[in-house]
Amino acid sequence: MTPSPAQALDTLVVGAGPAGIGCALALDAVDGLTVGVVDRGQIGETFRRWPQEQRFLTPSFTGNGYGSTDLNSVHPETSPAFSLGVDYPDGRGYAKYLRGVARVFEVPVAPECEVTSLRQDDGGFVATTPHGPIPARTVVWAGGEFQDPAVPQMAGKGALVHTSRHEAWGPRQGRLVVLGGYESGLDVACHHVEAGAEVTVLDADHPWDAGEGSDPSFRLAPRTRMRLARAQQTGRLRLLARHASSVARDGDRWSVSLSDGTVLEADSAPLAGTGFGPGLGPAAHLFDRREDGWPLVDADDQSTRAPGLFLAGAALRHGSQRFCFVYKFRQRFAHVARVVGESFGKDCTALEAWRQAGMLAEDVESCGAECAC
Ligand SMILES: Cc1cc2nc3c(=O)[nH]c(=O)nc-3n(C[C@H](O)[C@H](O)[C@H](O)COP(=O)(O)OP(=O)(O)OC[C@H]3O[C@@H](n4cnc5c(N)ncnc54)[C@H](O)[C@@H]3O)c2cc1C
């Protein structure tokens, strides 16, 4: 894509991660739409930045021909398992998959093109970038959540190291405290137990217990449960259903105080596996918020404050439904593309391929996962 097109694009996609590349591919399938993608870094920039120890939790497998499209793919005819030859991709591998998809399908991506502001203008939008303004009639915000690490509000929080930082994965000896007992907290805890550390995980909600329902957004992934069982067998992992209220450092010792007055000592900086915020960056002012703070969108994933601005990716919420995995948020790529295409009077027939591949859920209320056994 030419970074600063003379004519307004029909759709500008901000972000070249799985949500942005996936949406652009569906939009591109709509006959006659002009689409461009920008990224502040390279294609798959977030995955390029993942600590090398982190891998996908969702397995890849090339079941595409039988209607079981690889859980981590962003287009019906692709599979990370096929292109990478692994079942749980790491960050660099997945970035390579995204680059390959963008190359094969000729997705128009402008790298090193950060959107620093986004405003409504004359019925559309104008994105400000270092290469000049980009006018667009509609925008898909696919900036991802990795840029918005969530750290708990408590005294001494500056001493915490978030799991998105490479420093959290470096060698640790002795006693270590991890705040947060869901996927990222247990991921880093198991990693350090495997390397010999004695780890205490704190989470008042104790998500390591079975939890309710079958939805992986609320229940640990099988891979994590298997690692957890192995880590517990070492005797070096302690899971405490308690709330941390403050952190303090004294030289090369750290202490974490719990709300009941107990104090845990640690030999290195405590880690925060406490997740991410929505990461809306310069688009934040164009979204209303739900009561829980997540962006408010209408039934078509459009901002209620700025219609024509769509949200794609893990920050998407509809009612109690969370779309925090690729196999979930990809269900909306073709829906958004159809809403955009039809608003411009375009033929959207090609998007049926997404439905046939099990990659299109128009009724998000039907997305719940409950298993009988
Ligand atoms: C540690 C971790 C593990 C995860 N594991 C899994 C898993 O196993 N399975 C799964 O399905 N999901 C997993 N997820 C959730 C989710 O799939 C990923 O977070 C995924 O990266 C989200 O895709 P995205 O395209 O929305 O965001 P990203 O991949 O973060 O892409 C966003 C892109 O937008 C760019 N960008 C941001 N702001 C701007 C701007 N202002 N201008 C231009 N470009 C911008 C960034 O450079 C980036 O390339 C995991 C998430 C994390 C953090």
From TrEMBL:
Keywords: Oxidoreductase. The keyword rRNA processing does not apply. This is NAD(P)-binding domain-containing protein.
